[in-house]
Structure formats: structure tokens, C-alpha cells
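mind reviewing both lines:
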Amino acid sequence: MRPEKGSRRHGSEKWSKSDATRAMIVDAARKVFARHPYHKASIRMIAREGGFHFSLINHYFNKSELFGAVASAVSEELIKHFSSWLKEVEKLPPEEGLPVFLDRALEHFFENPDVLRILMKNAGEADSKETAPAFESFSRYVFAGGGILINELRMEKSVDNIVVWFYGVLNLLINFVGAAPYHCKVLNMDPDGQEYRRWVKDSLVYLFTPTLKELFSTQNTAE
């Protein structure tokens, strides 16, 4: 019997051949979607990237389901790293914690830019029938990330403002890293150089430290 598309096979094995095949397909798709927007990427292109026949993909996913699997993997990865970085700075004041957090985030994303490039290249298609379900994963990440921020820093007030703050930081990270070559043409910098990374960090610190301090101040006043 053909397995249900996009689902894991249940059984005694924790990691079946079916799981490994799906992971291999998603990995290839992730690389392609980081280079091409959804409407230009094809199943055959993904198969060539992974070095297997396109019919293998069709056995497990259609294109929309595959993009959804990539979006879920990317979102889960972002949550995992965000939680780890936040634990490093939870006891620091905002003006000290934000630069450390950005150091960790920028180091990771400049070394692994495909995560943010996928979001950057495909955000414009978030409202199409094929891609909308996938972007629900990203939306859940935004709210989950805001929730982690609230819980780790024990900020029980101004929840909506905290989510807005986090969403702003995240979207500028997506833009600055995902479209680094464009910004560096304007700034006359090397997209792979340390100068541009410092510029991104300094810009985000300048823009978001005052509002983060305000959120902490609001929280302290409320208490």
C-alpha cells in the first residue's frame, strides 16, 4: 500500500527507510527553495539537486506538501536556536542582552543563510493556495518565539507589543541576511565580510534596544 503523502510511517522502528527518504527529499528541496521562489522551482529541479529520479518525490509529496515540509523544518530550526540563544541572555539587561543575542543569530544565519533566504524569496507568495498552508508554520513560529521571549524573561505584560517587537527583529534579520548581496551593493560592502555583519548588528541594536528597554520598563511598572 502506498504511504500517505507527507506522513511518517508508524511502526517499531524510530527511523525507517521511509523517514530517511523523506528527509533526503526535504533537504534537496530546501536547497532549491533557497535559490528559487516557489513558482520557479520544480519537482525535476529538486530531484536533480538530490541526485534521484523525480518520481521518488511524487511517491511522497506533491509540490505544495513538499514546500510545507521545508517550511516546517525551517520553523522548527528557528525555534530551537532562538530558545538556545535567549537562555544565554535571559539574566542580562536589554542593552547588554540584545547585542549578544544578535551575535549568536548573525553568526548562525550568515553561515546557514538558506533558512532566511527561503523566507525572503517566498514571502511574496504567502497568500497563494499552494503556499499559504506552509506559511502558517512560520506564523506559528512568530507567536511561539514571542511566547518563549515572554516566558524566559518572565514578561507577562504587553504581550502584543512583545510579539510585534520580535516580529520586527525577525523580519529585518530575514531581509538583511536573505538579501545581503542587494544591500551590500548599496552600501559598497562585501556580503560575506565582517563589515556588513557589524553593520547589520549595529543597525538592529540601534533600532530595537530602546523599544526593548521600554518593554522592560513597562513590565517593571506593572509589577
In short: The mean pLDDT is 82. The two ends are 59 Å apart (CA to CA). The domain at 70-222 is CATH 1.10.357 (Tetracycline Repressor; domain 2).
